[in-house]
Amino acid sequence: MRVAIVASTSGSVYRFASRVPFVREQIALVVSDRECGALAAARQLGHPTVILPHAGGLAFSDALRELADAQGIDLIVSFYTRLFHGPLLDAYEGRLINFHPSILPACPGRDGFGDTIRAGTRFIGSTVHLVDTGMDTGRPLIQASAPNDPALPLAERRHRVFVQQCRSLVQVIRWYADGRVRLDAQGVNVADTRFDLAEFVPNLDCIEAIAFDAPFPG
Question: Where does the record place the Formyl transferase N-terminal domain (predicted)?
Answer without folding.
Answer: 26-171
